[in-house]
Specification:
With about 200 residues, the chain is α/β, with parallel strands linked by helices. The chain has helices spanning about 10-25, 40-50, 65-75, 95-100, 120-125, 160-185; strands at about 1-5, 30-35, 50-55, 80-85, 105-110, 130-140, 150-155, 190, 195-200. The strands form 2 sheets. It has a 7-stranded mixed beta sheet with strand order 3-2-1-4-5-6-7, covered by helices on one side. The chain has a two-stranded antiparallel ribbon with strand order 8-9. 5-O-phosphono-beta-D-ribofuranosylamine binds next to α1, β5 and α6.
Length: about 200
């Protein structure tokens, strides 16, 4: 199974997926890491680990449609069975999302449907919730509202800052995202008629 991972920055979720894929010998090939920013730190990790990288700078394209067409062309070069959004900070157009229906995953740093969008940790602190977390979901045209695959909750502590809360959530992201991607490449995770089917693995 070919996986293409899309990043915009640090790439720690991408890194967690690459490390797990190798350590656990998934039946998968991380075919490429693609970024919309040439300065995404994660590109260096990918290259250092022998993974092809590509940059499609969104600023080079006058419209979202033009950018997404170029992005899709780049992704297609790697014949992906699965496209993994890992801190990819561009909103994708409906045609691109439709093209990868049922084979594009995202991780969002909140317990969806709470706190879609940006600054999720600040949103959680402002709302005063006692539980926060992360969600892996299939990507649909409805931003941050695709069918939920996995979630993990963490406590919100009285003295939390955005940073301390983000760090606690990120630790969980690095567990649930590789597990979800592994389920997909092992054929245990599918989306059919808008419903998620997830069969348990052995380890
Ligand atoms: C993560 O918190 C992810 O949930 C969100 O953006 C952040 C990306 O971090 N979408 P990284 O690039 O994976 O380190």
């Amino acid at each position: 199974r070919n996986i293409v991972i899309l990043i915009s920055g640090r790439g720690s979720n991408m890194e967690a997926i690459v490390r797990a894929a190798r350590a656990e010998q998934w039946p998968a090939n991380i075919a490429a890491v693609v970024s919309n920013r040439a300065d995404a730190a994660g590109l260096q990790f990918a290259a250092a680990h022998g993974i092809e990288t590509a940059v499609v700078p969104n600023r080079d394209y006058p419209t979202r449609d033009a950018f997404d067409a170029a992005l899709q062309a780049t992704i297609e070069r790697f014949s992906p069975d699965l496209v993994v959004l890992a801190g990819f900070l561009r909103i994708l157009t409906a045609p691109l999302v439709a093209h990868y229906a049922g084979r594009m995953l995202n991780i969002h740093p909140s317990l969806l449907p709470s706190f879609p969008g940006l600054a999720t940790h600040r949103q959680a602190l402002v709302a005063g919730v006692k539980l926060h977390g992360a969600t892996v979901h299939f990507v649909t045209a409805d931003l941050d509202h695709g069918p939920i695959v996995a979630q993990s909750a963490v406590p919100v502590l009285a003295d939390d800052s955005e940073d301390s809360l983000a760090a606690r959530v990120l630790t969980q992201e690095h567990l649930i995202y590789p597990a979800a991607v592994r389920s997909f490449v092992e054929g245990r995770l599918t989306l059919a008629d808008g419903r998620v089917r997830l069969d348990a693995g052995r380890s």
